[in-house]
């Protein structure tokens, strides 16, 4: 098979690495890719939103399967563009990717089908939003309706903060058109857990749980980011929680989308809050998480190509999805100053060390080739990832591997997986 992967981050590197393990695959392309992905795939200079060029490339190279990694093209309708030309593609159509593309849509869906989530209201008028806030209980959560690179969520502790948040999202348009509409929802307390799942329109098979660290600084301080690290499995995601979620959240979501005439095929990422009142949905994403993919895929035993094809063909019920009984931790090495402003173009040293150690991986997020060497090219640069028999062992291994690689302005959190100690 010839496979095309669309995207350029750590998630796409993890997908390419996993696809390369399938005996069914002879050739991998990635558009646009990065310096790490280039080890497994031929990188093609086509941006993820250039649908016509991607489709033309897939036809020209007789690509057997295209895998969409990123949210923007999915929400924009890239799957529809491929299917219109008779091409096989893994990911939800535009009318299903709205599950991530509009928070207002997903909240309304949950309300309609009684899927547990936080109480909320939706606003398109900033004045009405401010008026509502004057009667609200704090802390409260403001969410830009559309895609905002995982950063369009503000937790406000006071009315003043919340009014400033309305201004930031709806008037200053910090997140662009994503802030044309806004969801205001109750602040939930508890542990956050991520569960990624494969879906074929009717059947859902969940992957192993994971837990993210969104804030830039140690102790969950600083600004929200795309994710500073992750571990899998989450010790807080118990069998009891899993049973509840399967019955009241996972299958009901798949059934709700089908009932709405928006059958979902691809990956649904469930962002959950384990509240004192039971698990509730924080958000949906319509693709693999980043860096969730980096800790879940190394633990997955099933051939990923078989799973992708089953999702497309509606035969997921025939797949035995298996994960190893081990643990994995990913620590993101970022450019100092991320997620606001940072310098790029610094040479990265020590990458070859990972080849010498089994169970250690370095997934590239923001890298590129320059003058024959690999240099930094983004806010999140690398995802240093390690396996272990236990979470504590995996974390120790990952932090050991952090020292193998270096670049100017290297920054990372020192407390990834600290919650493991409290489990």
TrEMBL record:
Cofactor(s) named in the record: Mn(2+); Mg(2+)
Keywords: ATP-binding, Ligase, Nucleotide-binding, Purine biosynthesis
Keyword Nucleotide-binding set for record: yes
GO molecular function, one term: phosphoribosylamine-glycine ligase activity
Catalysis performed (reactions): 5-phospho-beta-D-ribosylamine + glycine + ATP = N(1)-(5-phospho-beta-D-ribosyl)glycinamide + ADP + phosphate + H(+)
Metabolic or biological pathway, per its Swiss-Prot or TrEMBL entry: Purine metabolism; IMP biosynthesis via de novo pathway; N(1)-(5-phospho-D-ribosyl)glycinamide from 5-phospho-alpha-D-ribose 1-diphosphate: step 2/2
SMART domains (UniProt xref): GARS_A, GARS_C
Family, per entry: Belongs to the GARS family.
Listed name of the protein: Phosphoribosylamine--glycine ligase
Lineage: Bacteria, Bacillati, Bacillota, Clostridia, Lachnospirales
Gene coding for it: purD
């Amino acid at each position: 098979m010839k496979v095309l992967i669309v995207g350029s981050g750590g998630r796409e590197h993890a997908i390419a690495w996993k696809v390369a393990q399938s005996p069914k695959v002879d050739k991998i392309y990635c558009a646009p890719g990065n310096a790490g992905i280039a080890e497994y795939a031929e990188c093609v200079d086509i941006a993820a939103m250039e649908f016509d060029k991607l489709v033309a490339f897939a036809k020209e190279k007789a690509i057997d399967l295209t895998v969409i990694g990123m949210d923007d093209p999915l929400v924009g309708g890239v799957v529809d563009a491929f299917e219109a030309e008779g091409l096989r593609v893994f990911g939800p159509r535009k009318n299903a990717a709205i599950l991530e593309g509009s928070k207002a849509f997903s909240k309304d869906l949950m309300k309609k089908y009684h899927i547990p989530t936080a109480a909320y209201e939706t606003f398109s008028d900033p004045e009405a939003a401010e008026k509502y806030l004057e009667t609200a209980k704090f802390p409260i959560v403001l969410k830009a309706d559309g895609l905002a690179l995982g950063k369009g969520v503000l937790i406000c502790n006071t009315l003043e903060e919340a009014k400033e948040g309305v201004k930031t999202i709806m008037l200053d348009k910090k997140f662009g058109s994503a802030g044309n509409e806004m969801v205001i929802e109750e602040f939930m307390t508890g542990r956050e857990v991520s569960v990624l799942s494969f879906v074929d329109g009717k059947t859902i098979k969940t992957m192993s749980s994971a837990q993210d660290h969104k804030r830039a600084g140690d102790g969950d301080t600083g600004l929200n980011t795309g994710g500073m690290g992750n571990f899998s499995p989450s010790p807080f995601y118990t069998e009891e929680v899993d049973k509840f979620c399967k019955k009241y959240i996972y299958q009901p979501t798949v059934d709700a989308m089908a009932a709405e005439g928006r059958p979902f095929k691809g990956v649904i990422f469930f962002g959950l809050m384990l509240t004192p009142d039971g698990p509730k949905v924080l958000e949906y994403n319509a693709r693999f998480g980043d860096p969730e993919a980096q800790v879940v895929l190394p633990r997955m035993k099933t051939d990923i190509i078989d799973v992708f094809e089953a999702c497309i063909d509606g035969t997921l019920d025939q797949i035995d999805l298996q994960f190893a009984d081990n643990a994995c931790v990913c620590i993101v090495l970022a450019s100092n100053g991320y997620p606001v402003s940072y310098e790029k173009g610094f040479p990265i040293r020590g990458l070859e060390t990972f080849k010498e150690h089994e169970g250690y991986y370095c997934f590239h997020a923001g890298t590129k080739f320059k003058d024959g060497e690999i240099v930094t090219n983004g806010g999140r640069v690398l995802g240093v990832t390690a396996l272990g028999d236990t979470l504590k062992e995996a974390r120790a291994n990952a932090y050991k591997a952090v020292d193998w690689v270096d670049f100017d302005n290297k920054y990372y959190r020192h407390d990834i997986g600290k919650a493991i100690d409290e489990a």
